[in-house]
Amino acid sequence: MRRSLDLLYDTAAWLAALAMVGVLVMVLASVLGRLLHFNLPGTDAYAGYCMAAAGFLALAHTLKKNEHIRVSLIIGRLTGGARRALEIWALTAAVFLAGLFAWFSVRLAWLSHVYNDFSTANDATPLWIPQLAMAFGTVVLFIAFVDEWVLELRGERAHDEDNEEALHNE
């Protein structure tokens, strides 16, 4: 199961990297179009879609690598049972919020498909297509938070003080 979850997180990260390449390609196409006097309609919109996809698809991988910004002012001062209780509470809240986020993201993409929503920009893209990346990214983030929550309940989760690298990223 661990291998499958890690593969899911890595796949989402690779898709995020491809989306970043998509941003680069769209920006370069726009710049070259201006220099060489041709127009590729929709490059701005597609760059935006790719940027949003990159952000959402990278969320779970970033969480699993302990790279999310986390305010540890209170939890860093706690030890033992109090720290564990606060970790479980925070992860429970995160699972709930990520679940809501995933539910509404999937629902948004589905409703955009059902109601045949199109972009109002000159690209006229069916909106459910770029919204799929957001929906997939939020579902994978929800799975990652459930994974972290289960690891914490089992006592197998690595904490910030176990990761010295996090202290030296400034």
Sequence-ordered SSE layout with sheet pairings:
Elements: H1 2-35, H2 43-57, H3 59-64, H4 80-114, H5 128-154
Main beta sheet strand tally, sense and closure:
none
Strand content: under 5%
- Count of extended strands: 0
User: Uncertain segments of ≥5 residues (pLDDT<50)?
Assistant: 162-166
Distance linking N and C termini: 34 Å
How many domain units? 1
Shape: elongated
Instruction: Estimate the mean pLDDT confidence.
Output: 90
Q: What is the element string, with H for helices and E for strands? A: HHHHH
Q: Portion of residues in helices?
A: 55-70%
Number of helices: 5
Radius of gyration: 20 Å
Which structural class is indicated by helix and strand composition? mainly alpha
Give a structural overview:
This protein is an all-alpha fold and 170 residues long. The chain has helices at residues 2-35, 43-57, 59-64, 80-114, 128-154. It has one domain. It contains five helices and no strands. The longest helix has 35 residues, at 80-114. The protein starts with a helix and ends in a 16-residue tail after the last helix. Residues 162-166 have low confidence and may be disordered.
Task: Provide a compact summary of the structure.
The chain has five helices and no strands. It has helices spanning 2-35, 43-57, 59-64, 80-114, 128-154.
Which key phrases capture this entry?
single chain, mainly alpha, 5 helices, 69% helix, 0% strand, elongated
